[in-house]
Amino acid sequence: MNQQSLSGRFVQIGGIRLPIATLALLAAFAAVIGWSFLPTFRELSHKWFHDEGYSHGILVPFFAVYLLYARRSLMPVAGASDLKIGLACIGVGLTGRVIGGMFCFSYLDALSLLPILAGVALLLGGRAALRWSWPAVLYLFFMIPLPYRVEYAVGEPLQRIATMGSTFALQIVGQPAVAEGNIIRINDLELRIVEACSGLRMLLTFFAFSTAVAILIRKPLLERCLIVMSAVPIALVTNILRITVTGFVFQYSEKFGKVFFHDLAGWFMMPICLLLLGIELWILNRLIQHRDPKYAGSPLASRG
User: Fold this and answer.
1) What angle do CA 114, 120, 121 make, to 5 degrees?
2) Sequence-ordered list of residues with C-beta below 8 angstroms from that of 18, at least 6 positions apart, any chain
3) Owning domain of residue 166
4) Would you give the distance in Å from CA 61 to the centre of its chain?
5) What is residue 62's predicted lDDT score, i.e. its pLDDT?
6) What pairs with residue 183 in β-bridges?
């Protein structure tokens, strides 16, 4: 079988028609990248399965694959390779890997995967392939744990916001709550807002989820950005609500309060976040009416 007949054959995968040659190149690149980043993937998976703040990371690659499928109408069947820019992106990624390895900076090592994937897309199908795949490539950012210094720098003010917000909420409902540092005093009760209670874990998870909704929803760019940015106040309000309810529960049963605070409340936070996001989408749909037909109908499966 000559090369021309091989490249002229196609394979149908879930409604996507791919040339066999392109599919073979994709498989080869995937194998090389997978082998090269195997130690990085092991470290990431350990974080996903042992750190509740990044447990959503295991779902990120699957959603990235779904994004490729949802945007399949933009997938080029055949396109000119952009060799210079593609190699430049791969070079940036490889440089990041080398620097990350030299300084034991695992975050930079994992982050280098993104420009490498973008470079592969440019090599295979040029800018048309990058236009199809860039949302999926960028979304992989959410599977990478933040550096500890960043977590600390963000978590400390979040602790303070959670403490002050919960104290104010308890005072509003008639409780004699007083904030002392990151401790809320209610009569003889001390409610300590430790680092794990800052809400950073919920913020990271919900930020990833709201970004996924913004990518899929059929809305103008401004509304999508609003949905993404709303993850911050929604996560903060939900965490404050959790601490406030815990303050009430602690006064009646300290034992049950500890169980609620550390176990049960964590399960309730995400549904509350989703409920608030649903309310936000409902309000946006009522306040903003679009005449453009591409924003009508189903809000999902955006092709843009």
Assistant:
1) 95
2) 10, 11, 12, 26, 77
3) 148-295
4) 10
5) 92
6) 180, 192
CB 247 within 8 A of CB 216: no
Do the domain assignments include residue 197?
A: yes
Tell me how far apart the alpha carbons of residues 122 and 113 are, in angstroms, rounded to a whole number.
14
pTM of the model: 0.77
How far is the C-alpha of 93 from the C-alpha of 91, rounded, in Å? 5
pLDDT of residue 141: 93
- The reply to whether 287 and 153 lie within a common domain is yes
Alpha-carbon gap, residue 44 to 39, rounded angstroms: 9
Distance, in Å, from the CA atom of 131 to the CA atom of 179, rounded to the nearest integer, reads 50
The whole-angstrom separation of Cα 41 and Cα 37 is 6
CB-facing half-sphere around the CA of 266: CA atoms within 13 A: 16
Biggest CA-to-CA distance, the chain: 84
Reported in sequence order, the residue ranges of the chain that DSSP labels E, i.e. its strands, are 10-13, 16-19, 177-180, 183-186, 189-192
- Could you tell me if 208 and 48 are in contact, meaning their C-beta atoms sit under 8 angstroms apart? no
pLDDT in tens, 98-132: 898 888 888 899 999 999 999 888 887 788 888 88
All residues at 6 or more sequence positions from 72 whose CB lies less than 8 Å from its CB, including other chains: 14, 15, 16, 132
158 in the same domain as 24 = no
303 in a domain, yes or no? no
Distance CA(170)–CA(174), nearest Å, equals 6
Query: pLDDT digits over 229-285, tens only?
Result: 999 999 889 888 888 888 777 777 666 656 555 555 566 677 888 888 889 888 888
Instruction: Supply the pLDDT for residue 139.
Output: 93
